[in-house]
Specification:
Blueprint (H helix, E strand, L loop, with lengths): L8 E3 L6 E3 L15 E9 L7 E9 L9 E2 L3 E7 L6 E8 L9 E6 L5 E7 L6 E7 L13 E9 L5 E11 L7 E2 L3 E7 L7 E4 L2 E2 L7 E12 L2 E4 L3 E3 L4 E4 L10 E12 L13 E8 L7 E2 L24 E2 L9
Parallel strand pairs: 6-12, 14-22
Antiparallel strand pairs: 1-2, 3-4, 5-7, 7-10, 8-11, 9-10, 11-12, 13-16, 15-20, 17-18, 17-21, 19-20, 21-22, 23-24
Length: 333
């Protein structure tokens, strides 16, 4: 029952005319009454004894759209993972105190850039309407793009076009979905043939656009140019960190092998979606540099016997000796 509803009405005792003396507010009434107020009116004559009769007067207070929708919160912050089309992001909630004009529709006024959709639903838990925000079914948000945060201006409007606005910030969360890439794709290094076993030769480097990643490098192939022909070989180790080292049990010899090609793959162990390895292998070209590490040796011949006359002049050639070397011509002097 409308609280003390009779106080809002008065009746002329002579004419029986009912008048409103207080302000009526449909929203202050119990919604189950549907705006109905029932007044019990009694009419009494002046006879002796006086006789009276009673009647119930039903008054219906019609609702007027005089309230504006109000959002439950002054602002909203929502999170959504990148790369998921049509996914649910979150809800805003608003309520209109009007009893017959309380239906609310939501719309995104700005800030979406075509990436989000909002739909209105009656809150089955009671208390207004929900505006459910989803990613557009044709859109994949990309954390690696410039749009990591969207600032949406959302409007709630009732049937009478009373409206209010609220700011909704949508934060795009990173999903590990990018493939690592070798940078640079090819590395060229030069090492001297006398480097110690276990020494660092070079390093593969790769980049991953995902903020959270763990890159591991793996050997794909190793080939050497030895004695003029290219063949599979060993002698070099690729560490998971991308470092390339000379094997602890291996030494280099320029006179045997002068060039090495190592192919490697890089894998992101934190990949959540898509391929976890690089699309193309990385290549390291290792050029082995000669060092002067072989002393020349005389070629001994038993047939060499020299007789020199005591009259031989100064500077006169008397014989030739021959030496051999395994070194390049730059050292053969």
């Amino acid at each position: 029952m409308y609280y003390e509803a009779f106080r809002n009405f008065t009746i002329d005792p002579d004419t029986g005319v009912l008048r409103i003396v207080g302000e009526l507010d449909r929203e202050a009434m119990d919604p189950e009454l549907k705006g109905i107020i029932e007044l019990n009116v009694t009419a009494t004559d002046k006879g002796a004894p006086p006789l009276s009769t009673a009647v119930t007067v039903t008054i219906v207070v019609e609702d007027v759209d005089d309230n504006t929708p109000v959002f439950k919160d002054s602002s909203y912050k929502l999170n959504v993972k990148e790369g998921e089309k049509g996914v649910f992001v979150g809800s805003v909630q608003a309520e209109d105190m009007d009893q017959e004009f309380d239906r609310i529709s939501f719309s995104i006024l700005e800030g979406s850039f075509g990436s989000f959709i909002i739909r209105s639903y009656e809150d089955e838990r009671g208390g207004g309407y929900l505006g459910n925000i989803t990613v557009d079914p044709d859109i994949e948000l990309d954390y690696e793009s410039e749009n990591k945060v969207f600032t949406l201006k959302v409007e709630a409007a009732d049937l009478g076009q009373h409206s209010s606005e609220v700011t909704v910030k949508v934060f795009v969360l990173d999903v590990n979905d990018e493939r690592p890439v070798f940078e640079p794709p090819t590395v060229t290094v030069t090492v001297k043939e006398d480097i110690a076993p276990g020494s660092l030769v070079g390093r593969f480097t790769a980049k991953d656009r995902d903020g959270n990643h763990s890159l591991v490098y793996r050997l794909e192939s190793l080939q050497c140019r030895c004695n003029g022909s290219i063949e599979a070989c060993g002698g070099f180790v690729l560490e998971p960190t991308g470092e390339v080292r000379l094997d602890l049990e291996h030494t280099l010899d320029y006179d045997q092998c002068d060039q090495v090609w190592m192919e490697a793959q890089v894998v992101d162990e934190y990949t959540e979606k898509g391929e976890n390895n690089s699309a193309t292998a990385g290549l390291m070209e290792i050029n082995i540099e000669d060092v002067n590490d072989n002393a020349p040796q005389f070629i001994v011949s038993d047939s060499v016997f020299v007789v020199v006359s005591e009259r031989a002049s100064k500077g006169m050639p008397v014989a030739r000796v021959t030496v051999s070397t395994d070194m390049m011509s730059e050292w053969e002097e």
